[in-house]
Structure prediction request, 258 residues.
Amino acid sequence: MTTTNARATAPHGYHTALHRQLVDIASAPYRQAGRFAHGFARGKLWTDPLFIDLLRFGLLPAKGQFLDLGCGQAVFASWLLAAQQLAEAGQWPKDWPAAPRVEHLVGYELMPSDVARGRQALAAWPQIDIRQANVITEPFPQSDAVTILDVLHYFDENAQAAVLRKVRECLSPGGVLVIRVGDAGRGWRFELSRRVDQAVTWVRGHGWSDLHCRPINAWVAALEQEGFSAEVIQSVGGPPFANTFVVGRLPATGTIAA
Prediction:
């Protein structure tokens, strides 16, 4: 039986010395990919509390095979590598969960320019595999954790269901899915989020995109339909958007009905 919990994050760890150090390390490889790539990486990692929240709440496995769907220029992969570097240097907060160790990370991204920037920046890390691929049609590799961050609402509901089903099928028992979506039930915050998403999509060359958003309880129901237990997490800090985490976990053992 699935359960749904909700909690709000506190901004501890956001815009701290540790955050600044992680941003410096994670954005540095993008210098070789150009000014835009480096500036985008720094801005995204510094202003978005998503990245700190994933680490300080231990939402990801301590190690394993990762799949990042809609990875862009792969700043999330670089962020995990930066956390691992600090942990190996003995500079990780003792009261935080262990920093995830990336044994292998596959990132899917549709835009060739983003793929090129990510590959150029992270070429020195053979465990990072950035592929130009369509999330809807491409098979998914076996994974311990899947992230879909600010991506699902670009697909219609049938495609959303198909992607979630493929995630369930590729995840190991006890695997985790982390999605971030716009909560259509949050009034002006959602409307602001929607307009910013469409503007960013336009500026980055994707053209005008219709967004297929839902209230957060409908997103939770979509995960539960696929056999995930779900937890809702609303970040505190960062821009006043309606972006909300839903963390889905599969049972460690047993069979999930299709």
In short: The helical segments are 17-27, 35-47, 50-56, 75-88, 112-121, 157-170, 187-203, 216-225. The CA atoms of residues 109 and 132 lie 5 Å apart. The mean pLDDT is 86.
